[in-house]
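Reminder: ligand-aware prediction takes two inputs, not one.
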Amino acid sequence: MQEWEKLLGMKWPQNACDRSGECCRGAAQLAPWDKLIQQAAEGSQTARNFLSQYIPYPNRTEALLNAPDAVEASLEIARLRGDKEEDIIFYHCIYLKGQSACQIYEDRPALCRDFPESPFGAIPKCCGYSEAQKQCMDKIDAMKTELQRLKALQASQGMTDA
Ligand code: SF4
Ligand code: SF4
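Here is what comes back for the chain with iron/sulfur cluster:
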């Protein structure tokens, strides 16, 4: 069990993927294609793994047409992190046939097997994991509210942090 699962008292689902292909059609990176190639040439295994299966869309419009939920989820995360939306580049997988058929499903890379690992990344709203993500975020919001209530109570009693 991961630390955040213990803290939230929740278990992240293991088999909620319905093989929609949305994440395969809308992978996001802060790095453009040529930068990834440079990183791979300099020894980055992460860049090599990514380049071995993804190619970039010619523009944002194409990405939006093919994977609207994945694009929106990544842009939302970018906003939260303070990244510039225009710096996000969208890619699609070369192993996808049609909208959702993975041609190497039984041998798909760990990146795909493990996605999404937690509720803290970009999860498309159509994804089978999005409901679990919402439950986690609702729980975090409730914990934040409770923390604020306790701080206000502490302040009203004239107590301060040690
Ligand atoms: S978006 Fe979610 S449900 Fe669709 S293929 Fe990816 S992990 Fe599976
Ligand atoms: S290898 Fe298969 S599961 Fe992974 S992104 Fe490509 S099409 Fe999707």
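The first helix runs from residue 3 to 8. The two ends are 32 Å apart (CA to CA). We will return to this case in the review session.
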